[in-house]
Design brief:
This protein is an alpha/beta fold. It has a single domain (7-26, 33-293), classed as UDP-N-acetylmuramoyl-L-alanine:D-glutamate ligase (3-Layer(aba) Sandwich). The protein has helices at 44-54, 69-77, 119-125, 145-148, 151-160, 178-190, 198-205, 210-218, 260-273, 278-293, and strands spanning 7-11, 14-20, 36-42, 59-66, 84-88, 94-100, 104-109, 135-139, 164-168, 193-197, 227-230, 236-240, 243-247. The protein has a nine-stranded mixed beta sheet with strand order 5-4-1-8-9-10-11-12-13, with helices on both faces. It has a four-stranded mixed beta sheet with strand order 3-2-6-7. α2 links the parallel β4 (59-66) and β5 (84-88).
């Protein structure tokens, strides 16, 4: 039996160092000890690709890394037949995540190799990749300075090559300036699937409510393009054409929510490629994200998609 069409995840991969909890900022010159810590490959695209691996999806990561021990870790973790990891001179990007009570967190990051990752590198690594019929997710565009200006053209080229395109732009450095809003709207208008969280939706549109934000973007979407809004512990909502869907997130106490939206993307896209209906895809995203982030440190054991069972509901 032939495998389903593949999923290409295009974007950022780096090292995440995560520890906590901390409810205060330490004094200079002191040492602070934390109860828990985790060292793992991170970045929005890599997070999604890692969960797709656990789901057994036919997928690959298209990313880059530096020429250092972190780059060796990334290249070793993504060495499958559909993975493409380009090595660039210099250090890899590293993010330190400090966790706070209430599932809040603070990030400290170095740009490293991510500044040089651009559309030219992506096109070279996708040469010969089976894009016809695939889903191609561009994830974390705002974290990749070299990709921002050419991201719309890349999305359009991916569609020309037969892929169903998806975008998760992330939060822009510098906030939602007019320039960043214009970029994000162009990426969204060119994409077949839009994956965005509630804070990004409200920041992008200037709306006060989720429903108003969806309305503000709806007219600029491609026909029947799902607009998916991730809402963390409140689940997710989506609009597909004139139909609205909701899905709840399973209740759970979570120590570390980093990568929750990326795990949602993996569940949603895996269900989409399996031919699930829009509501079932939404449910799969919430279910997979909840199971992934309950574990600290993160696990690598196999995951299964939930059985379809979500029915259409109105967004409230």
């Amino acid at each position: 039996m032939a495998p389903p069409p593949p999923i290409a995840v295009i974007g950022n991969a780096n090292l995440d160092l995560v520890c906590g909890l901390s409810d205060h900022w330490p004094e200079r010159g002191t040492e602070t000890f934390f109860d828990r810590a985790d060292s793992r490959i991170g970045g929005s695209a890599a997070n999604t690709a890692l969960v797709l691996q656990r789901l057994g999806a036919h997928a690959g990561l298209i990313a880059s890394s530096g020429e250092d021990i972190v780059g060796d870790m990334i290249a070793a973790r993504f060495a499958g037949p559909l993975d493409r990891i380009g090595r660039t001179s210099g250090p890899s990007s590293v993010t330190f995540g400090l966790l706070h009570p209430g599932s809040e967190r603070t990030f400290f990051s170095t740009p490293g190799h991510l500044d040089s990752f651009d559309a030219k590198i992506v096109r070279a690594m996708l040469d010969g990749w089976p894009l016809d019929g695939a889903v191609a997710l561009v994830s974390g565009s705002f974290a990749l300075p070299g990709l921002r200006a050419d991201c719309t053209a890349l999305i359009e080229e991916l569609r020309f090559l037969g892929a169903r395109t998806a975008i998760d732009p992330g939060w822009p450095d510098g906030g939602w300036t007019d320039s960043n809003r214009s970029l994000a709207r162009r990426w969204i208008a060119a994409s077949d699937v839009i994956l965005i969280n509630d804070k990004e939706l409200l920041g992008l549109t200037g709306a006060a409510r989720i429903t108003d934000g969806i309305e503000a973007l709806a007219d600029g979407l491609r026909p029947e393009a799902p607009l998916v809004v991730k809402r963390g512990p409140e689940g997710a909502v989506s609009r597909v054409g004139d139909a609205d869907f909701t899905a709840a997130s399973p209740a759970a106490w979570v120590f570390d929510t980093i990568g929750a939206g990326d795990a949602f993307n993996a569940g949603y896209l895996a269900a989409l490629q399996a031919g699930c209906a829009p509501g079932a895809c939404l449910h799969a995203g919430c279910d997979v994200a909840s199971r992934v982030i309950r574990a600290f440190p993160r696990e690598t054991t196999p995951l299964a998609l939930p059985q379809p069972g979500l029915t259409r509901k109105d967004i409230r």
